[in-house]
Structures are given as C-alpha cells and as structure tokens.
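Course assignment 3, question 2. Fill in each field.
Student: A.L.
Task: Predict the tertiary structure for the chain below.
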Amino acid sequence: MMVVDRPAGRFHHARVRDLPGYLCAGDVLVVNDSRVIPARVFGVKKTTGGRVELLLLAESEPGVWTALSRGSRRLRTGTDLALAGGKIEATVLGRHANGTVSLTLRSDRSVLDVLEEEGVPPLPPYIRRNYSRAGPDRVRADGPLPPREALARQTALDRERYQTVYAARPGSIAAPTAGLHFTPELLAELEAGGVSRSAVTLHVGLGTFRPVTAVRVEEHVMEPERYTLGTETAERLNAVIRARAEPRPPGRSAPRIVAVGTTTVRVLETVGAESGRLSPSAGSTSLFIYPPFRFRIVDALLTNFHLPGSTLIMLVSAFAGRELILRAYQEAVREQYRFYSYGDCMLVL
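Answer field:
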C-alpha cells in the first residue's frame, strides 16, 4: 500500500495490514457493498446452433436486460437464443450505439437464481479462463480442455475471490476492487480502534470502465450506474460532516470520511454535490470526476492503481492533484507495484 500525504506532497510505502495506524477513532470507512453477479452466460442461437456469449449488464425494466455480446457474428434483432443450458430463453430486441444489445429474458425462475447456478464470474479480460458452455452437460475450451472437475473448482474459487467480504447487494458486473484488500480480521481491528464502517451501493457497470476517447475530456459521457445511499449511512456521515466543521483543541484531529474505492466516491459526491450534506437517495449517476473538481464529502481515499486514459485515474488526480499522482505512479512503477483488479492499493490522505 502506497500512502500519499497530500498536505506534505509526499508518499511512502506500507502494507494494507498497517491501515489501522493511518486511521483514527471517529473516522468512518465507507464501502461499496455491491455484490458481483455471475453475469457471464453462454448459449446458442436456436436457428443455427451458433455459440453465443453474453455479459448481462443490468435489467432495464422487468424482463428486459442490456448485455454485451460475443460470438462469430453480430446478434440481429429478433434472434432467439437458448442460454444457460436452456434454462433461459432470450430474444434480441435491438442494438445500441454503445455496443450493447437489449434482450428479453424468460425463465421459470428468477434470472439471478439461474445465473448463480449456470453463470460464470465476469473476470477482467486479462485473467484468462478461456472456457465456454455449449449446453447443459458440455464444457468446451479454446485451448486444452481441463477436467470438468478442475474447471468447476476454478469457477468456485473465482466466485469467492472476485467478491469483497462485505458484499451484500447483487448487481455488479465487476468487483469494486479497492474492497478486495479487506479481511474480516482487518475490519474487526479497525472497529476495535474506533473506526466505524458504513455502506453505500453502486452497481459497477460500463461507466466505470469505459476509457475516455473524446478529444476534450469535458465531452466524455459516463454510462449511468445505479446507486443507493440509505438513511443510516446518511445520518452517520452527516454527523461526521458537522463534527469536522467544529473548532477543535490543538492536536486533536477532526473525524474523516474515508471512501473505499472510486465507486464509493462517486455515490457520495453525487448525493452531496449541491448542499455538502447527504440524504437518503437512490437512482443512477453519470458523475464524471476530473480536475478541477470540488469534493464536498470525501476526506480520504483508498483505491487501486489505474490505467492511463481511464476515468478512474482522472478521479484520483482530481482528489490528490495531477502532479502528485503522476509522481506517485512513477514511484509505483519503480517499486513494482501491481496494477489491475487484484493489484496493490494507494491510501490518499
């Protein structure tokens, strides 16, 4: 874990297990409790038998889902599909400019229940599993086919590992990766030290990962992602906001709102943008944070290392300052920090 000291303009190296030493009694750790669904599902076109792979993104209305598709040919409007070994039937409704498709999904049970049985964790593309399901009793691979039992064990491990320990509300197509660093033991140690924990929910979708391709940063449009901020979280964080504005004796620090991950930041700053206070809220956010941005809610941030050109590194640059973050990333490369979802993290204070 790299610790970035914004006031001093310096950074140093630590371990995630050292986190309790950097937080104080009264601080509130805010996490994203969204749960990753096994949203990668395989099937066939009913008319031709051609294989299809879908990444189900979200249910836009009852029975209608948006998805990313992969196959030998583009899915055409009206195409009928048999997914998850025939447990889900689908019909393509149309294609969208952002590359997604809309489908109606029909099943005797909840689609989420079927995905829990037949779906595959939507791991990032740089983690290669290279398998697909051609039917209820067959598993194929692009390379050498591992034993079915080994593949099942690997899938079970992926389901467990690509999930935060506090995940509760199903809906994400990717893990809020800053939270993957936490263990129950670390959370218990923080709580024993007076650091409380609150949760918001943002279901990670395309908005988090779409790179910025516009010539002007201001022209980039974030895909909307669904969020919820509950009453208990709003009340606890508003108490911190009031307390940090009060005069304090010398040597006594104000409590802080410590966001775990950029998705948590976007929820808090979406809800608190106008008043600097939080109220129970649910909806969709397309908030794109880049320099200069006035943060109203978040005091500190724990986040992973992000790729150039991503909205994520722009958010971190807005929070810590572009030049400081560039120097920190240069140091991370020299010290061989790991990037990506299962990589190392940065604590920005």
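Instructor remarks: The chain has a mean pLDDT of 90. The longest strand covers residues 51-61.
Grade: pending
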